[in-house]
Design goal:
two-stranded antiparallel ribbon; 4 helices
């Protein structure tokens, strides 16, 4: 958003959005899980799936970090990108035969993020 100053020049004003505490806690939990998942994919937990699956899993986790950073900064693209990453991760796991029903619980944070969507700011 832009506002004119006393001399008539446009000045950019950032709209500050307060982040709820449970969004902060949820983002921190997801980041901790992401680090654990990256570490576990390279210490041999997924050794039976070749070398491509751990790399793709780590790439999806990194994309989820980007999405969580959007939610953390209360940007509207954060929940959208998080839902896309979760969907791609579920499809990737089903494709490689590594589908874990527990990962469907990631839909719950996505729903919580979308409930906070009206409070988020639009990136210019």
């Amino acid at each position: 958003m832009y506002v004119k100053d006393q001399f008539g020049y446009k000045k950019r004003v950032k709209r500050k959005v307060n982040r709820p505490k449970f969004i902060t806690a949820l983002c921190l939990l997801l980041i901790a899980y992401g680090f654990w998942s990256i570490i576990s994919s390279y210490i041999g937990v997924y050794s039976g799936f070749g070398t491509l699956y751990p790399a793709m899993n780590a790439l999806m986790i990194v994309f989820s970090f980007v999405a969580i950073s959007g939610v953390w900064s209360m940007e509207k693209w954060g929940p959208i990108s998080f839902a896309i990453v979760i969907t791609l991760k579920i499809f990737m796991d089903a494709l490689w035969g590594k589908f874990n029903p527990w990962f469907l619980l990631a839909i719950i944070p996505a729903i919580i993020f979308f409930l906070q969507f009206p409070k988020m700011k639009k990136t210019e």
